[in-house]
Design brief:
The complex is a heterodimer of chains A (about 220) and B (about 375). By secondary structure, chain A is α/β, with parallel strands linked by helices. Chain A has 7 helices and 10 strands. Chain A has helices spanning about 45-50, 75-80, 95-100, 115-125, 140-150, 170-185, 200; strands spanning about 5-10, 15-25, 30-35, 60-65, 65, 80-85, 160, 190-195, 205-210, 215. In chain A, strand 7 (about 160), helix 6 (about 170-185) and strand 8 form a beta-alpha-beta unit. The radius of gyration of chain A is 17 Å and the shape is globular. The mean pLDDT of chain A is about 95. With about 375 residues, chain B is of the alpha+beta class. Chain B folds into 2 domains: about 5-45 and about 235-365, no CATH class; about 55-225, no CATH class. Chain B contains 13 helices and 12 strands. In chain B, strand 3 and strand 4 form a beta hairpin. In chain B, helix 2 packs antiparallel against helix 12 and helix 11 packs antiparallel against helix 12 (about 330-360). The two termini of chain B are about 30 Å apart. The chains are: A alpha/beta (about 220), B alpha+beta (about 375). The interface of A and B includes residues 95, 98 and 153 of A.
Chain lengths: ~220, ~375
């Protein structure tokens, strides 16, 4: 089990807003799950908890063998175990595709062969000829592929994708989702995908539904 | 990509803002450099004045704020001469006269028979003998475009140039010597001199001679053997030094405010990006280092630009008629000081923005529009 969450609670604004209200979730290594729910349901908060971007108030959360309630060095946990893909690509505009993919490697195992590793990933995502381009010169789908390459930089055990196709057209959306699926199948990376779109969610092998901070289905 | 390369790319994403920040700091640095060059020159020529004629020490009026405002009774020259160990002493009167285009022309009065004791070397012609004769320095000769046989008028009286000398002292080379008596007359300072140069016997104990003079005539006279001695007496040099430090401090304060402003804006604009860096696992220490590094890159460029500006400003000053008065002295310390100030400003101004960047909540930063 790569993700084990028990009775996880998280509130914002001094308890006025309950984002997670006792969530239980278990994910096995190599699974591709999607967390589906309307906006404000707590799905992004849950993703942020798994990715250790934020700390829960109470409950238990273990990811990749680490107890995130007690873990002190969350940044190196993120660097080694997690790859984030956001709705907006969030690439750094003044860096090239290659350099953007290198960014996470400053804190990871490929520190000494950054360029080699980044080139490998760019090739894998079919962007070899765009390595020296800047994000502004790429299409939306290409940018998101760069973001996937960046997420893979440090060889993470889990990819967390928050509405990764939210700003793409349906054709590009399909390609990106296929790439994620391929990644999951061929490289055994666990993928947790958050979306409000049932069509996107259906690409996963398991769908978790969340509403008002509680898992209601899946 | 090296981490340093990454830092180098960031400051120029907003070129105008960075260039403005650099200019702001560079002006402060330029002031420090220019002032340093002038101050060093001033110290050096003052030191040369003290050592004029190979004097072992100089006597000036005690409790005088500036060495050149000193006035001593001529009678002290003989008194000093009589002190054992003193080989000879010569009194000089220093004055500044407007001559032709030059508003500040240093004219020094000296006993014609004692010109030989001074450090000056007659390059051409001969030394002064009569009251209506004058010798001018080689810099003055060039500037006034005069040579031996020409006349110079001081206070409506004409003096015949009989020789051109060289001393290596900027004030002397840019000025002239006439007879002491004549200058006392012109300046209405009969029987007075500005200072007395004292030369000791070969094996005499200079400190002992100085002690004796201070003991006997301490109420009216002070002896100065080094620049350090002078700095404790001379208000002018003290003021210049204090002004130099005050301006440096001002440059640090203004520069830091500029850097803080520039870097806060830069961090603010990159809020989302910093969120991403946190999400991909960057440690706070690395984010702090990056922002501080960017700040230092700005101020180091400003140090280079400012140093060049400072040197250029001095060159311009040299060209507009101040040449005889300013002698630039470039020491490595001046530029070290400029770079130290720049590094200090870079760290001081960059720290708060860098700290703020590390305090950003990753989840908030990622939501930031």
């Amino acid at each position: 089990m790569i993700i084990n969450i028990k009775n996880l609670k998280k509130t914002f604004d001094n308890g006025k807003i309950v984002a997670l209200d006792g969530v239980n979730l278990q994910v096995d290594e190599g699974e591709f799950i999607s967390i589906m729910g309307p906006s404000g349901s707590g799905k992004s908060t849950l993703l942020n908890m798994i990715g250790a971007l934020d700390r829960p108030d109470s409950g238990m959360i273990k990811v990749a063998g680490r107890n995130l309630m007690k873990e002190k060095d969350l940044s190196s946990f993120r660097a080694r175990e997690i790859g984030f893909i956001f709705q907006l690509h969030n690439l750094i505009p003044n860096l090239t595709v290659l350099e953007n993919v290198e960014i996470p490697m400053f804190e990871g195992p490929y520190k000494d062969k950054m360029e080699e590793r980044a080139m490998e990933l760019i090739e894998y995502l079919g962007l070899a000829d765009k390595a020296d381009r800047r994000p502004s010169e790429l299409s939306g789908g290409e940018r998101q592929r760069v973001a996937i390459a960046r997420a893979l930089a440090n060889d993470p055990s889990i990819i967390l994708a928050d509405e990764p196709t939210g700003s793409l057209d349906s054709k590009t959306e399909k390609k990106i989702l296929e790439k994620l699926k391929e990644l999951n199948k061929e490289h055994d990376v666990t993928i947790v995908l958050v979306t409000h779109d049932p069509r996107v969610a259906s690409k996963a092998s398991r769908i978790i539904e969340i509403l008002d901070g509680k898992i209601v289905g899946g | 990509m090296k981490f340093f390369q990454l830092m180098l790319k960031n400051p120029f994403r907003n070129k105008i803002r960075s260039v403005l920040a650099i200019i702001g700091i560079a002006i402060g640095i330029a002031t420090i450099v220019a002032l340093g060059i002038i101050t060093e020159g001033l110290k050096e020529s003052t030191q040369e004045t003290l050592r004029a004629g190979g004097a072992d020490f100089t006597i000036v009026e005690s409790n005088v704020s500036d060495m050149f405002l000193s006035t001593i009774d001529e009678g002290y020259i003989d008194k000093v001469d009589n002190i054992s160990g003193v080989k000879e002493s010569v009194g000089v009167l220093t004055s500044v006269q407007p001559i032709e285009d030059s508003p500040y022309f240093v004219v020094i009065g000296i006993d014609p028979s004692k010109v030989g004791l001074s450090q000056i070397k007659i390059k051409s012609g001969r030394s002064i003998k009569e009251d209506d004769e004058i010798i001018i320095g080689k810099v003055a000769a060039e500037k006034l475009n005069k040579t031996i046989g020409d006349k110079i008028s001081i206070k409506r009286e004409n003096y015949k140039i009989v020789g051109i000398f060289e001393s290596g002292n900027i004030q002397e080379d840019g000025g002239a010597f006439i007879s002491l008596k004549k200058l006392q007359e012109i300046e209405d300072k009969k029987g007075k001199v500005t200072m007395i140069y004292v030369k000791a016997e070969k094996n005499a104990n200079i400190e002992k001679i100085r002690e004796e003079i201070e003991k006997k005539y301490g109420e009216n006279l002070t002896t100065i053997a080094s620049l350090e001695d002078l700095q404790s007496v001379d208000q002018g040099l003290k003021t210049v030094d204090a002004a130099s430090w005050a301006i440096s401090l001002l440059a640090v304060v203004i520069g830091s405010i500029g850097v803080v402003n520039t870097m806060i804006m830069s961090v603010f604009e990159r809020t989302r990006e910093i969120g991403v860096l946190k999400a991909v696992g960057w440690k706070n220490k690395r984010i702090l280092t990056m922002i501080l590094g960017e700040s230092l890159i700005l101020t180091l460029i400003a140090a280079i630009v400012g140093s060049l500006m400072g040197v250029a400003a001095i060159q311009i000053l040299m060209h507009i008629n101040m040449g005889g008065f300013i002698r630039p002295v470039y020491t490595i310390e001046i530029f070290l000081k400029a770079f130290t100030v720049a590094i200090f400003v870079g760290i001081l101004g960059g720290f708060y923005p860098a700290y703020r960047a590390t305090r950003l909540e990753a989840t908030e930063a990622l939501r930031y529009e």
